[in-house]
Specification:
Distance between the termini: 82 Å
Number of domains: 2
Shape: elongated
Oligomer: single chain
Structural class: alpha+beta
Strand order of the largest sheet: 6-5-8-7-9
Helix content: 55-70%
Number of helices: 18
Number of strands: 9
Largest sheet: 5 strands, antiparallel
């Protein structure tokens, strides 16, 4: 029997038999993931920590191969013992990443603690010699290689954790990526990489039997961390043996579903000024669920997308491929169309700001307000400050401005006040204030009211403009 068959079949059998036993034990011990009906969509508590049966199945397949080794002589691999050097090379780091995931499943670690542990495991991988060294014979400096390797492994590890939001998604996408890596390894005649991927393929197939909707056990952070981390390591080995200058492009395409989802999550949260590590319901699978698709249909659709990404990655990574550049462009176009169809408001608004000049208007306003504030600080009289205030209010599209300064009222009306939509009063000292009014249809794309208020309050509360007193909070009145 071929050693590959033993590795894959034994990993499949161990996962298939061990997973339900381990699942029942977790239920008995009360180690389950309770639904919150917000991000956790399962109806009843489900045990997690699925990384343990996958890890045991993965390691157990190599143990079984060793035990059967003497009976395998005469196979196509010579002495019958497969090249398991890569699996052994990754052993310590894999144990570390599994332990971090288990602790997170059990104790709910803080994001920084998880990142620190993952970084340590990635450093162990780098020290073992698995690293991004360069592209097409061009070697990277050691420091750049170190940073690139750590970032890539952290990205893969957390990307799989982020998409593990509905039954069977992360395990199934991992299955596609593992199968793609195995095919690439066979095309490259990379026996060590093939031997490392075969048991993961078998373990994921066996585990997916219980993880597909309706799931009776989840990967948990232990499983998603382990699968993502191993696939990140395999991607590095794949790129090292690549015959093209494109290097990491093929592994990146094979992992396109989790990587793109992670990138979208980071950009979305950045645009909304929310913590990047805080979960939300904006992931790709959540968007598809909001379109009315069932969990099964969402998972199957993303399996199809993962399969398309796998096909692109194999085409790009195929030796002597003279059309790799065109393939990458087609892949990027398909990915862009898919992202557009998800209907993210954050990206649509950002696109409008950029294409319609909103970003430049907002930037220009911030610069104008800084200039305005500096001019107020330099003003030596109330009349000079009033001229600056009138010019700025007119530039920002206000209809009217009034300033009560030390008992004296200044007012300038730029347009008839028949259609006032809202007014804003900014208290300064005891009886002093500035009041502005605004009408309908004004372009407010770049208007930052808070920054304008702070510039006025900071500049006009100086002693030379009014009597010193306690500065009040800002109040706004809206009139229809």
């Amino acid at each position: 029997m071929h050693p590959f068959v033993i590795l894959g079949a034994s990993a499949f059998a161990i996962a298939l038999l061990l997973t339900p036993l381990f699942r029942n034990a977790l239920v008995k011990w009360g180690l389950v993931d309770a639904p919150d009906h917000v991000r956790k969509l399962h109806a009843t508590p489900v045990p997690n920590m699925g990384g343990i049966p996958i890890a045991i199945a993965y390691a157990g397949s190599f143990v079984l191969l060793r035990l059967l080794g003497p009976n395998l002589r005469g196979t196509t691999l010579g002495n019958g013992i497969l090249d398991s050097s890569l699996a052994l090379q990754l052993l310590l780091a894999s144990v570390l990443i599994l332990a971090i995931g288990l602790l997170d499943d059990w104790l709910q670690l803080q994001p920084l603690h998880k990142i620190a542990g993952q970084t340590l495991a990635a450093m162990v991988v780098f020290a073992s010699g698995v690293r991004i060294t360069g592209f097409d014979g061009v070697h990277l400096p050691l420091a750049v290689s170190f940073v690139a390797t750590i970032v890539w492994l952290l990205a893969c590890t957390n990307a799989f954790n982020l998409i593990d939001g509905i039954d069977g998604l992360a395990a199934g996408v991992g299955l596609f990526a593992t199968a793609t890596t195995l095919i690439a390894a066979l095309l490259q005649h990379n026996i060590a990489l093939a031997a490392a991927t075969v048991p993961l393929l078998g373990a994921l197939i066996g585990f997916l039997r219980y993880n597909f909707n309706p799931a009776t056990i989840f990967l948990g952070d232990s499983g998603s961390f382990l699968v993502g981390f191993l696939l990140g390591c395999f991607g590095i080995i794949w790129s090292q043996k690549s015959a093209t200058i494109l290097g990491m492009t093929a592994p990146l395409m094979a992992l396109s579903v989790p990587i793109l989802d992670a990138m979208l999550s980071i950009v979305r949260r950045f645009l909304r000024r929310k913590p990047i590590m805080r979960g939300d319901r904006g992931h790709v699978h959540h968007r598809l669920l909001e379109r009315g698709l069932s969990q099964r249909k969402v998972v199957l659709l993303l399996y199809l997308v993962a399969g398309i990404g796998a096909g692109f990655s194999l085409l790009v990574g195929y030796p002597s491929n003279h059309y790799a550049g065109a393939i990458i462009l087609v892949f990027c176009a398909v990915a862009w169309i898919g992202i557009q169809n998800l209907g993210y408001d954050e990206f649509e608004q950002a696109r409008r700001l950029i294409l319609n000049g909103g970003f430049r208007r907002a930037l220009n306003l911030q610069l104008e307000l800084r200039t305005f504030r500096k001019a107020l600080d330099s003003a030596t009289s109330t009349e000079e400050a009033w001229e600056l205030l009138v010019a700025m209010a007119k530039q920002l599209g206000f209809l009217d401005v009034r300033w009560n300064a030390g008992g004296r009222v200044y007012r300038d009306e730029f347009s008839p006040l028949i259609h006032v939509v809202w007014s804003l009063r900014i208290p300064l000292h005891e009886t002093d204030y500035v009041e502005l009014t605004r009408g309908p249809g004004e372009d407010e794309a770049g208007l930052n009211v808070g920054a304008f208020v702070e510039a006025i309050r900071g500049g006009l509360t100086q002693p030379q403009f009014s009597r010193p007193a306690e500065v009040s909070k800002v109040h706004s009145a809206f009139r229809g």
